[in-house]
Specification:
This protein is an alpha/beta fold. It is built from 9 helices and 11 strands. The chain has helices spanning 37-56, 134-142, 167-170, 177-193, 210-220, 251-257, 280-285, 305-321, 341-355; strands spanning 17-18, 68-79, 88-97, 104-112, 119-124, 146-150, 198-208, 227-231, 243-244, 292-297, 328-333. The strands form 2 sheets. Strands 2-3-4-6-5-7-8-10-11 form a 9-stranded mixed β-sheet, with helices on both faces. Strands 1-9 form a two-stranded antiparallel ribbon. Helix 2 (134-142) links the parallel strand 5 and strand 6. The structure holds beta-D-galactopyranuronic acid. Residues 209-210, 234-235, 249, 254, 257 line the site of beta-D-galactopyranuronic acid.
Protein backbone atom coordinates (compact mmCIF):
# COMPACT_ATOMS: atom_id res chain seq x y z
CA UNK A 1 0.00 0.00 0.00
CA UNK A 2 2.92 2.32 0.51
CA UNK A 3 3.97 4.39 -2.46
CA UNK A 4 7.63 4.08 -3.27
CA UNK A 5 9.73 6.95 -4.51
CA UNK A 6 9.10 5.95 -8.15
CA UNK A 7 5.34 5.69 -7.75
CA UNK A 8 4.73 9.16 -6.32
CA UNK A 9 2.01 10.83 -8.40
CA UNK A 10 3.61 14.30 -8.46
CA UNK A 11 7.06 15.43 -9.44
CA UNK A 12 8.82 18.69 -8.83
CA UNK A 13 7.88 19.85 -12.31
CA UNK A 14 4.21 19.89 -11.20
CA UNK A 15 5.01 22.82 -8.88
CA UNK A 16 3.83 26.27 -9.95
CA UNK A 17 6.35 27.90 -7.60
CA UNK A 18 9.75 26.48 -6.75
CA UNK A 19 12.14 28.29 -4.43
CA UNK A 20 15.08 26.02 -5.14
CA UNK A 21 16.97 23.21 -3.41
CA UNK A 22 15.97 21.97 0.03
CA UNK A 23 18.59 22.14 2.81
CA UNK A 24 20.59 18.91 2.92
CA UNK A 25 19.34 16.92 5.86
CA UNK A 26 22.31 14.57 5.82
CA UNK A 27 24.93 17.28 6.30
CA UNK A 28 25.72 19.03 9.58
CA UNK A 29 25.38 22.81 9.75
CA UNK A 30 29.18 23.05 9.24
CA UNK A 31 28.87 20.98 6.04
CA UNK A 32 30.29 17.70 7.39
CA UNK A 33 28.43 14.65 6.06
CA UNK A 34 26.09 12.54 8.19
CA UNK A 35 27.12 8.95 7.43
CA UNK A 36 26.08 6.74 10.33
CA UNK A 37 23.26 6.29 12.82
CA UNK A 38 25.55 7.84 15.47
CA UNK A 39 26.09 10.89 13.24
CA UNK A 40 22.31 11.08 12.79
CA UNK A 41 21.75 11.22 16.54
CA UNK A 42 23.88 14.39 16.65
CA UNK A 43 22.32 15.84 13.50
CA UNK A 44 18.88 15.13 14.96
CA UNK A 45 19.64 17.37 17.94
CA UNK A 46 20.84 20.13 15.59
CA UNK A 47 17.69 19.86 13.45
CA UNK A 48 15.40 19.89 16.48
CA UNK A 49 16.86 23.21 17.64
CA UNK A 50 16.62 24.81 14.21
CA UNK A 51 13.03 23.96 13.35
CA UNK A 52 11.56 24.28 16.84
CA UNK A 53 13.01 27.69 17.49
CA UNK A 54 12.26 29.29 14.12
CA UNK A 55 8.89 27.77 13.23
CA UNK A 56 7.09 26.62 16.37
CA UNK A 57 8.51 28.89 19.09
CA UNK A 58 10.01 26.07 21.17
CA UNK A 59 8.06 23.68 23.39
CA UNK A 60 6.44 23.96 26.81
CA UNK A 61 8.55 22.35 29.55
CA UNK A 62 9.10 18.60 29.37
CA UNK A 63 7.57 16.92 32.42
CA UNK A 64 8.23 13.60 34.13
CA UNK A 65 5.33 11.11 33.75
CA UNK A 66 4.59 11.43 37.50
CA UNK A 67 3.40 15.02 36.96
CA UNK A 68 0.31 13.70 35.18
CA UNK A 69 -2.46 11.85 37.00
CA UNK A 70 -5.76 10.32 35.93
CA UNK A 71 -9.10 10.16 37.67
CA UNK A 72 -11.78 7.81 36.38
CA UNK A 73 -15.01 9.82 36.17
CA UNK A 74 -17.19 7.38 34.28
CA UNK A 75 -16.98 3.72 33.39
CA UNK A 76 -16.52 1.08 32.54
CA UNK A 77 -19.54 1.16 30.25
CA UNK A 78 -20.35 -1.51 27.71
CA UNK A 79 -20.13 0.10 24.29
CA UNK A 80 -20.38 -1.00 20.66
CA UNK A 81 -22.99 -3.76 21.03
CA UNK A 82 -24.63 -2.52 17.84
CA UNK A 83 -21.42 -3.16 15.92
CA UNK A 84 -21.51 -6.77 17.10
CA UNK A 85 -18.25 -6.37 18.98
CA UNK A 86 -18.99 -7.64 22.42
CA UNK A 87 -17.05 -6.64 25.48
CA UNK A 88 -15.77 -3.20 24.42
CA UNK A 89 -15.51 -0.93 27.44
CA UNK A 90 -15.68 2.85 27.53
CA UNK A 91 -13.96 4.77 30.32
CA UNK A 92 -13.78 8.53 30.77
CA UNK A 93 -10.92 10.13 32.72
CA UNK A 94 -9.86 13.54 33.89
CA UNK A 95 -6.18 14.01 33.11
CA UNK A 96 -4.57 16.40 35.60
CA UNK A 97 -1.17 18.07 35.33
CA UNK A 98 0.00 19.32 38.67
CA UNK A 99 3.37 21.02 38.21
CA UNK A 100 2.38 24.34 36.68
CA UNK A 101 1.53 27.70 38.20
CA UNK A 102 -2.19 26.89 37.66
CA UNK A 103 -3.89 23.48 37.65
CA UNK A 104 -4.52 22.07 34.18
CA UNK A 105 -7.07 19.42 33.29
CA UNK A 106 -8.52 17.78 30.19
CA UNK A 107 -10.85 14.87 29.54
CA UNK A 108 -9.73 11.64 27.88
CA UNK A 109 -12.01 8.83 26.78
CA UNK A 110 -10.80 5.30 26.14
CA UNK A 111 -12.43 2.42 24.26
CA UNK A 112 -10.78 -0.91 25.04
CA UNK A 113 -11.34 -4.07 22.96
CA UNK A 114 -12.41 -7.31 24.66
CA UNK A 115 -9.63 -9.33 26.29
CA UNK A 116 -6.78 -8.88 28.71
CA UNK A 117 -4.37 -6.89 26.58
CA UNK A 118 -1.89 -5.36 26.68
CA UNK A 119 -3.43 -3.50 23.74
CA UNK A 120 -1.75 -1.16 21.29
CA UNK A 121 -3.44 2.25 21.30
CA UNK A 122 -4.41 4.83 18.70
CA UNK A 123 -4.59 8.30 20.27
CA UNK A 124 -6.36 11.29 18.66
CA UNK A 125 -6.75 14.84 20.02
CA UNK A 126 -9.10 16.39 17.44
CA UNK A 127 -12.19 16.38 19.68
CA UNK A 128 -12.58 20.14 19.19
CA UNK A 129 -14.03 19.33 15.75
CA UNK A 130 -15.73 16.04 16.43
CA UNK A 131 -14.89 13.01 18.43
CA UNK A 132 -14.25 9.80 16.60
CA UNK A 133 -17.39 8.38 15.03
CA UNK A 134 -18.59 4.99 16.27
CA UNK A 135 -18.07 3.66 12.75
CA UNK A 136 -14.41 4.68 12.79
CA UNK A 137 -14.01 3.46 16.38
CA UNK A 138 -15.38 0.05 15.41
CA UNK A 139 -12.70 -0.26 12.69
CA UNK A 140 -9.97 0.52 15.21
CA UNK A 141 -11.34 -1.92 17.81
CA UNK A 142 -11.87 -4.73 15.29
CA UNK A 143 -8.18 -4.58 14.51
CA UNK A 144 -7.33 -5.07 18.18
CA UNK A 145 -6.33 -1.50 19.03
CA UNK A 146 -7.67 0.46 21.96
CA UNK A 147 -8.61 4.01 21.03
CA UNK A 148 -8.14 7.08 23.21
CA UNK A 149 -9.40 10.54 22.32
CA UNK A 150 -9.39 14.04 23.75
CA UNK A 151 -9.84 17.68 22.76
CA UNK A 152 -6.46 19.43 22.39
CA UNK A 153 -8.25 22.82 22.70
CA UNK A 154 -8.93 22.11 26.37
CA UNK A 155 -5.17 22.62 26.85
CA UNK A 156 -4.71 25.58 24.48
CA UNK A 157 -7.52 27.46 22.79
CA UNK A 158 -7.50 27.77 19.03
CA UNK A 159 -7.94 31.53 19.23
CA UNK A 160 -5.78 34.55 18.81
CA UNK A 161 -5.01 36.33 22.08
CA UNK A 162 -5.61 33.33 24.34
CA UNK A 163 -2.02 33.19 25.53
CA UNK A 164 -2.83 33.72 29.21
CA UNK A 165 -5.17 30.74 29.59
CA UNK A 166 -4.95 26.99 29.90
CA UNK A 167 -1.40 25.81 29.41
CA UNK A 168 -0.15 29.41 29.04
CA UNK A 169 -1.37 30.21 32.57
CA UNK A 170 0.10 26.97 33.94
CA UNK A 171 3.42 27.15 32.06
CA UNK A 172 3.96 30.68 30.70
CA UNK A 173 6.15 30.80 27.62
CA UNK A 174 6.57 31.98 24.05
CA UNK A 175 5.79 28.64 22.40
CA UNK A 176 3.07 28.56 19.73
CA UNK A 177 -0.22 26.73 20.02
CA UNK A 178 0.91 23.84 17.79
CA UNK A 179 3.61 23.16 20.39
CA UNK A 180 1.05 23.41 23.19
CA UNK A 181 -1.16 20.86 21.45
CA UNK A 182 1.81 18.56 20.81
CA UNK A 183 2.63 18.79 24.52
CA UNK A 184 -0.99 17.81 25.27
CA UNK A 185 -0.37 14.58 23.34
CA UNK A 186 2.66 13.94 25.53
CA UNK A 187 0.55 14.37 28.66
CA UNK A 188 -2.16 12.12 27.19
CA UNK A 189 0.58 9.53 26.66
CA UNK A 190 1.60 9.92 30.33
CA UNK A 191 -2.05 9.36 31.27
CA UNK A 192 -2.17 6.12 29.25
CA UNK A 193 0.81 4.85 31.28
CA UNK A 194 -1.45 4.93 34.36
CA UNK A 195 -4.18 2.80 32.78
CA UNK A 196 -3.89 -1.01 32.91
CA UNK A 197 -4.21 -3.26 29.85
CA UNK A 198 -2.47 -0.84 27.48
CA UNK A 199 0.92 -1.34 25.84
CA UNK A 200 3.03 1.83 26.31
CA UNK A 201 5.47 0.64 23.65
CA UNK A 202 2.73 0.68 21.00
CA UNK A 203 0.95 4.02 21.14
CA UNK A 204 0.27 5.56 17.70
CA UNK A 205 -1.09 9.08 17.24
CA UNK A 206 -3.11 10.49 14.38
CA UNK A 207 -4.65 13.87 13.59
CA UNK A 208 -6.12 15.89 10.76
CA UNK A 209 -5.10 19.20 9.21
CA UNK A 210 -3.93 21.50 12.04
CA UNK A 211 -4.27 18.32 14.10
CA UNK A 212 -1.96 16.62 11.54
CA UNK A 213 0.64 19.36 12.02
CA UNK A 214 0.23 18.73 15.75
CA UNK A 215 0.82 14.97 15.64
CA UNK A 216 3.92 15.37 13.49
CA UNK A 217 5.32 17.81 16.03
CA UNK A 218 4.26 15.58 18.94
CA UNK A 219 5.93 12.52 17.40
CA UNK A 220 9.02 14.54 16.52
CA UNK A 221 9.48 15.74 20.10
CA UNK A 222 8.69 12.54 22.04
CA UNK A 223 10.29 9.26 20.98
CA UNK A 224 7.93 7.26 23.22
CA UNK A 225 5.29 7.68 20.53
CA UNK A 226 5.51 4.59 18.36
CA UNK A 227 3.94 5.81 15.11
CA UNK A 228 2.40 8.90 13.53
CA UNK A 229 -0.47 9.30 11.06
CA UNK A 230 -0.49 12.78 9.55
CA UNK A 231 -3.74 13.38 7.68
CA UNK A 232 -3.94 16.34 5.25
CA UNK A 233 -1.66 18.54 7.37
CA UNK A 234 -0.36 20.74 4.55
CA UNK A 235 1.60 23.93 5.24
CA UNK A 236 3.87 23.62 8.32
CA UNK A 237 2.99 19.91 8.44
CA UNK A 238 3.90 17.50 5.66
CA UNK A 239 4.14 20.03 2.81
CA UNK A 240 7.34 21.56 1.65
CA UNK A 241 7.58 25.37 1.99
CA UNK A 242 9.76 25.79 -1.10
CA UNK A 243 7.83 23.63 -3.58
CA UNK A 244 4.22 24.65 -4.07
CA UNK A 245 1.55 23.25 -6.33
CA UNK A 246 -1.34 25.37 -7.65
CA UNK A 247 -3.55 26.81 -4.90
CA UNK A 248 -1.21 25.95 -2.00
CA UNK A 249 -1.18 27.70 1.34
CA UNK A 250 1.98 29.71 1.99
CA UNK A 251 3.74 31.00 5.09
CA UNK A 252 2.24 34.45 4.39
CA UNK A 253 -1.36 33.21 4.63
CA UNK A 254 -0.93 30.83 7.53
CA UNK A 255 0.93 33.34 9.71
CA UNK A 256 -1.60 36.07 8.87
CA UNK A 257 -4.60 33.88 9.78
CA UNK A 258 -3.08 31.87 12.63
CA UNK A 259 -0.06 33.79 14.00
CA UNK A 260 -0.50 32.22 17.44
CA UNK A 261 0.19 28.70 16.12
CA UNK A 262 3.86 29.60 15.61
CA UNK A 263 6.91 31.39 16.89
CA UNK A 264 6.00 35.09 17.00
CA UNK A 265 8.62 35.92 14.35
CA UNK A 266 7.90 33.08 11.93
CA UNK A 267 5.89 35.40 9.64
CA UNK A 268 9.15 37.14 8.71
CA UNK A 269 9.88 34.21 6.41
CA UNK A 270 6.82 34.90 4.25
CA UNK A 271 8.14 35.45 0.73
CA UNK A 272 11.63 34.40 1.85
CA UNK A 273 11.12 30.63 1.79
CA UNK A 274 14.34 30.10 -0.19
CA UNK A 275 16.38 31.35 2.78
CA UNK A 276 14.82 29.14 5.47
CA UNK A 277 17.55 27.01 7.08
CA UNK A 278 15.14 24.05 7.07
CA UNK A 279 12.09 22.72 5.32
CA UNK A 280 9.40 20.37 6.52
CA UNK A 281 11.50 17.22 5.87
CA UNK A 282 13.40 18.28 9.03
CA UNK A 283 10.25 17.75 11.08
CA UNK A 284 9.33 14.43 9.45
CA UNK A 285 12.87 13.07 9.82
CA UNK A 286 12.74 13.59 13.58
CA UNK A 287 10.20 10.76 13.65
CA UNK A 288 12.56 8.30 11.90
CA UNK A 289 12.93 5.33 12.19
CA UNK A 290 9.41 5.08 13.65
CA UNK A 291 6.46 4.53 11.28
CA UNK A 292 5.15 7.77 9.73
CA UNK A 293 2.33 7.94 7.20
CA UNK A 294 1.33 11.00 5.19
CA UNK A 295 -2.29 10.80 3.99
CA UNK A 296 -2.85 13.17 1.08
CA UNK A 297 -6.04 14.06 -0.83
CA UNK A 298 -5.53 14.96 -4.49
CA UNK A 299 -8.27 17.61 -4.38
CA UNK A 300 -6.98 19.30 -1.22
CA UNK A 301 -4.86 21.80 -3.11
CA UNK A 302 -4.55 24.16 -0.11
CA UNK A 303 -2.58 21.38 1.64
CA UNK A 304 -0.15 21.20 -1.32
CA UNK A 305 -0.03 17.54 -2.47
CA UNK A 306 2.93 18.36 -4.75
CA UNK A 307 4.88 19.68 -1.75
CA UNK A 308 3.95 16.61 0.30
CA UNK A 309 5.71 14.45 -2.29
CA UNK A 310 8.80 16.65 -2.01
CA UNK A 311 8.87 16.31 1.76
CA UNK A 312 8.50 12.55 1.39
CA UNK A 313 11.39 12.38 -1.11
CA UNK A 314 13.62 14.55 1.09
CA UNK A 315 12.84 12.56 4.27
CA UNK A 316 13.38 9.11 2.75
CA UNK A 317 17.24 9.26 2.90
CA UNK A 318 17.09 9.47 6.71
CA UNK A 319 14.81 6.43 6.95
CA UNK A 320 17.17 4.65 4.51
CA UNK A 321 20.22 5.55 6.61
CA UNK A 322 18.50 4.06 9.67
CA UNK A 323 17.51 0.89 7.77
CA UNK A 324 13.78 1.64 8.10
CA UNK A 325 12.76 2.78 4.63
CA UNK A 326 9.53 0.77 4.84
CA UNK A 327 8.43 2.85 7.83
CA UNK A 328 7.95 6.02 5.81
CA UNK A 329 4.68 5.90 3.89
CA UNK A 330 2.51 8.16 1.79
CA UNK A 331 -0.99 7.41 0.52
CA UNK A 332 -3.25 9.36 -1.81
CA UNK A 333 -6.97 9.37 -2.32
CA UNK A 334 -9.38 11.27 -4.52
CA UNK A 335 -11.47 14.04 -2.99
CA UNK A 336 -10.81 16.93 -0.66
CA UNK A 337 -9.91 17.88 2.86
CA UNK A 338 -11.24 15.45 5.49
CA UNK A 339 -10.37 12.69 7.93
CA UNK A 340 -12.57 9.91 6.60
CA UNK A 341 -13.05 6.43 7.99
CA UNK A 342 -11.14 5.19 4.92
CA UNK A 343 -8.18 7.41 5.92
CA UNK A 344 -8.24 5.87 9.40
CA UNK A 345 -8.34 2.37 7.89
CA UNK A 346 -5.32 3.04 5.69
CA UNK A 347 -3.40 4.27 8.74
CA UNK A 348 -4.50 1.23 10.76
CA UNK A 349 -3.33 -1.10 7.98
CA UNK A 350 -0.01 0.75 7.88
CA UNK A 351 0.65 0.54 11.60
CA UNK A 352 -0.86 -2.96 11.87
CA UNK A 353 1.85 -4.18 9.48
CA UNK A 354 4.56 -2.34 11.38
CA UNK A 355 3.66 -2.40 15.08
CA UNK A 356 1.11 -5.22 15.32
CA UNK A 357 -2.58 -4.92 16.08
C1 LIG B 1 -6.87 26.09 7.36
C2 LIG B 1 -5.39 26.30 7.50
C3 LIG B 1 -4.72 25.01 7.16
C4 LIG B 1 -5.30 23.86 7.94
C5 LIG B 1 -6.80 23.96 8.08
C6 LIG B 1 -7.41 23.05 9.13
O1 LIG B 1 -7.63 27.21 7.41
O2 LIG B 1 -5.03 27.34 6.63
O3 LIG B 1 -3.33 25.12 7.34
O4 LIG B 1 -4.69 23.77 9.16
O5 LIG B 1 -7.23 25.21 8.39
O6 LIG B 1 -6.85 22.86 10.20
O7 LIG B 1 -8.52 22.58 8.88
Amino acid sequence: MMNTYQELPYSRSDAVEDDGPLPDILAFADGAPVRTAADWARRRAEITDIILSIEYGGMPPALPPEATDVELVHGPANAFRRFEIDGVTQDTYYVRISEGAEPLRFTLTLWTPPGDGPFPVVLNGDGCWSYLSDKTGAEVLKRGFAVAFFNRCEVARDRNGACDRGIYAAFPGAYGTLSAWAWAYHRAYDALLRIPKLDPGRVAITGHSRGGKTVELAGATDTRIAAVGDNNSGCCGFSCHRVRGAGSERIAAITRNFPFWFDKDFGRWAGHEAGLPFDQHFLAALIAPRPLLFAVAHGDLWSNPVGACETYRATAPVYRLLGAEENLGIVFREGGHGHLTGDWCRFLDFIGERMGG
